[in-house]
Amino acid sequence: MVSTTLASPDPDRTSRMAYGDVGSFDTRFERLTGHYKDAILRGELKPGDRFPSARELSETHGVGRTTAGRVHGTLISLGLIEHRAGIGTFVLAPAAEGSKDPATLKAAAQKAVRAFDGWTSRSKPKALTDAISELRDALG
Asked: How far apart are the C-alpha atoms of 138 and 112, rounded to whole Å?
């Protein structure tokens, strides 16, 4: 059963969020991964901080070791944490903003706009239409 309980607006409970309810995604794996990714990107967990082991994540959040291991693997693949054999797992510095090549991003955005313009469906989702309009504006 998937819990869809939202975080409490109570400040005391919110401050303990790392050890309790971590949001309302589809699965525990997604909730934990999103929670820790956000904590790292917001600076709550700083580069060099020790990150909880899979066993600690499992015990703290009441998830299986497989789920905790998947959280670790995902955060490692995103470059947010690293495991040092025999030492532990540590938080890495998030990638700097704008680290992608602007020319590559612009080419990808232009390709998306062309694909959208070639879409022959009778109707296009409003959210997608709005996003493409923002892309066009940003491209100039």
From this structure: 13
| Phi then psi dihedrals of residue 88, to 5 deg | 145, -170
Contact residues for 49 (Cβ-Cβ < 8 A; gap 6+): 90, 91
Asked if 22 contacts 13 with a C-beta cutoff of 8 angstroms, the reply is no
User: Could you tell me the residue ranges of all domains in the chain?
Assistant: 11-91, 102-139
Dump pLDDT digits (tens) for 34-64.
Answer: 999 999 988 899 999 999 999 999 999 998 9
* Structure token digits, residue 59: 């015990």
Angstrom distance (rounded) from CA 79 to CA 69:
15
Assess if CATH 1.10.10.10 describes domain 11-91: yes
**In DSSP terms, which residues pair with 130 in a beta bridge?**
none
pLDDT one-digit tens code per residue, 67-117: 999 999 899 988 899 988 889 999 998 766 555 556 667 777 777 887 777
Tens of pLDDT, residue by residue over 10-39, are 444 444 445 555 554 468 888 899 999 999
Task: Give first-to-last CA distance, the chain, whole Å.
Answer: 47
